[in-house]
Design goal:
Helix content is 60%, strand content 2%. It has helices at 9-19, 28-37, 49-64, 68-77, 87-101, 124-139, 144-147, 152-155, 160-178, 184-192, 208-228, 235-238, 244-263, 267-271, and strands at 106-108, 114-116. It starts with 8 loop residues before the first helix and ends with a helix. It has two domains: 9-116; 124-271, no CATH class. The protein is elongated and about 75 Å long. It has 14 helices and two strands; from the N terminus they run H-H-H-H-H-E-E-H-H-H-H-H-H-H-H-H. Strands 1-2 form a two-stranded antiparallel ribbon.
Amino acid sequence: MAVIPKFNASVIESISKILGDTSNGFTGTEIAKLLHESSIDDIEPTITKWRRINIALDNKQNIDNCSNNILSFIQNSLNPAKHYDNEEWFNDTRSKINKVLSFEGFSIGENGKIVPIKKSTTITESKARASKLKESLLLRKVHNDVLKYCKEELLVDNYFHAVFEATKSVADKIREKTNLTSDGATLVDEAFSFKSIPYLSLNSLSTESEKSEQKGFMNLLKGLFGTFRNTTAHAPKIKWKIDELDALDILSMISLVHRRLDKAVEAKKIYEGNI
């Protein structure tokens, strides 16, 4: 790796506070291991976690006169293999780290690798990006359940995260309306299959045309889930970049799905007398 200039002291401090968060972060033993893996001396192992990290990182880059080992520490800390059973923490922490790293022109992806990006100069850049997307979606009159995923923390890296989270909301709504617990294609089949009384029905299912509509909607949902779910398990999707126009079109499609789900008849509950 090429020599990377020293990071601003404020950037190192912010990174240390995020990774040293005592409420839901690394243990003292884990911090020691991460520093060792990154070839960084653990100078003050008995002090507050974030200060311990901050002093160690600051000292290392002053010795080396570069920030290479700082990036190594971040990559080791956010190696996805270490957090396979805590995806929520991983995504939340990575989002926070990326906000700070952007001021030095770097970003860490879902694969745990750091890549160069255009350097941020103001805190409001990611917020402006979110506002622009939300404004465009408002003009399209998208469903309210989609608008809440246009947050700056989801867009600081790329638009994929907003689309990913919005897609998850579709599965959540289906489970809420049916009390099913499955996911993806299995959830779609269980909820909409009409070999018997379906959990959810778009229409009366009395004609071939209506049955085709139900089948088509099932295929649409399966395509949506297959394309945007389980991204951490599929490297090609992690690397797939979505631009603003892609995001607008996909979120508009998810909006349509939400509207159809809102109008869907909870047929099985009605049949069983639960409504």
